[in-house]
Each structure stands twice: as structure tokens, then as C-alpha cells.
Amino acid sequence: MITGANSGIGLATAAALAAKGARVVLAVRDVDKGRTAARTIGAGVEARRLDLSSLASVREFAAGIGEPFDHLINNAGTMTGTRQVTADGFESQFGVNHLGHFALTNLLIDRITSRVVTVTSSAHRTATIDVDDLQWERRPYRPLGAYGQSKLANLLFTVELQRLLTAAGSSVLSTAAHPGWASTGFTITSGNRLLDRLSALSTPLLAHGPDRGALPTLLATAGDVAGGSLTGPGRFGVRGPATVVDRSAAADDPALARRLWSTSEELTHTTSSLDPRPST
């Protein structure tokens, strides 16, 4: 099951897995585009509606999954140049990139049999996270700062999920991947017009395409990697063969990971069946 899989890295990941015989569910906001993508890939692929900006949609989607499945790939992502909010009032980058996937994973974890893979970004390396102001209501809004915070949250989620899985004696692994510099149609909207223009001009020339951008995700999904690990391109984190890579010190902070997990439970009103802490 792959979120945001009707284009870009998600579509390339789905196509690669389907080519190896996997049955794939494309969890997408636009079902028409998802069905077109499914037909392009071929047999064994279907599209279902999932809007990660709405917790109601996340719950409806999860309720429709009745059978166990092997892998959940949290791939979908958004980037905005101005502060926007989700249907539930969350800052949109944090709400979609982290909280939507957090709730989805919590609601499905008892049906996942192999791995949870969460796609992050090298933007996490320079990011900080303010658990007391996750929605940027008190700080001046910085689009890149908000995006980086959401991607750091993806890694903290990966680490804490693996801790809970291990504590529960589960064989399921939680891994993460970042694609490096990939040309996928994902538009950088930093709020800085010059930076966005430079990115738009340089990406087609210097970035690799979706197929190579998907390689770290495929390694995190089916490769011989440890739980809690991060995969990415091996050449300066930008391009090259997929391998296990280092992450920032903040992404390895267990206390911060636990605090973010608890706060995310409160915000989404979801509690993992793995979590021994009482539901709020």
C-alpha cells in the first residue's frame, strides 16, 4: 500500500513492486488519476481514495482495509509557500506529511505484516522541531522551516515506531527513505521567489528521475536493512546508488521522539495497538 502513488516516486515505486508480482494499492487523493496510474502499471494494481489532509478520510480509508497486507509505504507529501491548514486545522505540511501518515499507520498497524516505510527528505538535516508550536501559530511562518520540521517528524516517527514494535516483540520493521535530488513534478515552494526559480531551472539538469529516486524506498521496503534505518542516495545524499545513510542528531533523539509521538496521538485521537501507554 503506497500513499501518493499516482505520480513521481510513488508511481515509480508501485510500478517496480508490481513488476515483481506484488499486488499494490495506490492510496491517492484523486481517484481518477489513481485509476489512470493503475491502468498504466497493469494487473494487480488498484486505486483507493485517501486524503491525508482529513483525519475523517484517513479513518474511512483504514476502516475499508479488512485483510492483512505486507507493506505500508508512507510516500505522499506536500510543500506550500504560505501557511495553509488542513480540514482539521493543522498546518498543512505537518498535517499531511506527518500527522496524516501517523494516524494511518496507527489505524492499520495490526494488519501490517512486514514493514512500514516512511519517505522523508534530506531537508530534515537542518530542521528543528518545536513540539509546543507544531502548527506555527506563534512563530513567524517559514515554509522551508515547516517542511523541514515535517520531515524531521517523519524520522522521529520511524524511530519511535521501531522502538514500540521491538518492545511488543513484533517482527514488523519501521524504516525510512529519502530520494535525494529527484525530478518528479514535486514543486519547491519555499516562499523565496529567487530560490524557487533557481530550483526550477536546475532540477531538470542535475536531478535524477523518479525511477532512480524510488531506489531508496525500494531498498527500505525489500532490502536487507535494520529497523529504524534511513536509506538514501550514496553520493553526498543527492544522487547515486541507494544505501543506508546517516541522519541528523535531532532525528535520533529518543526523548523528542517519544514526546512527539504522545503529542501526535493527542492531535489525531489515535493510539497504536502497540503503545502500552493509556489512550487519551
Automatic annotation (TrEMBL):
It holds the Pfam family adh_short. InterPro entries: NAD(P)-bd_dom_sf, SDR_fam. It comes from the Bacteria. Keywords: Oxidoreductase. GO terms for molecular function: oxidoreductase activity. PANTHER family: PHOSPHATIDYLINOSITOL-GLYCAN BIOSYNTHESIS CLASS F PROTEIN, PHOSPHATIDYLINOSITOL-GLYCAN BIOSYNTHESIS CLASS F PROTEIN-RELATED. This is NAD(P)-dependent dehydrogenase (Short-subunit alcohol dehydrogenase family).
